[in-house]
Amino acid sequence: MSYFAAPFEVRSEALGTPVQVRFVHLMSGIATRHSDTIDCFFRVDGRIVTVAISCATLTELREREQKYLTDQQLVEMAALHLRRTLEEGYDATQAELPLEGEELRRLAREGGYL
Prior knowledge:
Shape: globular
Largest sheet: 5 strands, mixed
Helix content: 25-40%
CATH class: Alpha Beta
CATH topology: Double Stranded RNA Binding Domain
Number of helices: 4
Distance between the termini: 24 Å
CATH architecture: 2-Layer Sandwich
Number of strands: 5
Order of helices and strands: EEHEEHHEH
Low-confidence stretches: none
Structural class: alpha+beta
Oligomer: single chain
Mean pLDDT: 89
């Protein structure tokens, strides 16, 4: 399967310059990093940044609200989360950016997925 998030440029407050962001791929962090996440990988000016989407929150959405988010929807939410975090001052030197709880729910509602 192929998932897509359009490349984008965003001004990073931390770096003081625009940065190029490209989606790389989506995969389970459970087997690869022993993390209870779905990992969405992006290149931010050549550096890999992982948006780690909480499986616990996804399970909660599925069990309590009967909402199933597709992989494509997760990619779109991860891209938006990364964009906003960069705009707010994230310098992309940390390898992992978590996306969980209320933030994930807010992005899902904003995208019309909930």
